């Protein structure tokens, strides 16, 4: 496999992390004003960041209702992932399955040695062999690109800012109406909105990069394009109740839940049509190479 570093993705990850670090500094200043103490915000943010770094994968799996499965339970799935990992020059990740009819897959974990690739039963039932390989390779490409770890770190600031916006008044005590509290919450709103949009923009680009990586791993861009069309068609048949249950995990989905213009701006994924178009172009390039 002729794997080439996606410098566009790395540059975007570095730029996003730089901007989020600048927001982090502003945010700590706002929390210092809020609590009247510099040490407490640092301890609080440090504790949350450590917890998210080490336990975000387990929380993601639990949120999806996914559990790790053995090779005895899903022998074909394990064989596929092992073969694709050999082609991608990656250590084999843990494999998890979520019992839901929503056809989807996601990768999580802080590094290549601690990664987990999860799929739903709906996905396994929907795709043929080549399509399933394409989706699994897409998730492995996320692991190889190390963008799962970056997204985990990047989402931390947004999560804390949202927490302050929603629940900060509970910790304000007698100073609930004071200017420091109002300023801290207003800054938190700004931090949350900016970090949310930065993360979404980065996430949409990383999906294109993972699509290209999947094509290199399998040598079949058309298989992933076919899988995207199959999943997109199945999503229209999934009950809305199931979609609402899965909405919180939309950041990991190979197919996002659509919600008009605002949904596209806030989406973690580009449109299916655009992804398929790029995969078809890549398929032509590989055929003529």
UniProtKB/TrEMBL annotation:
Its main location: membrane. The chain crosses the membrane at residues 12-32, 38-55, 148-169, 181-202. One of its GO terms (cellular component) is plasma membrane. Gene3D superfamilies: Metalloproteases ('zincins'), catalytic domain. Its EC number is 3.4.24.-. HAMAP family: Pept_M48_protease_HtpX. This is Protease HtpX homolog.
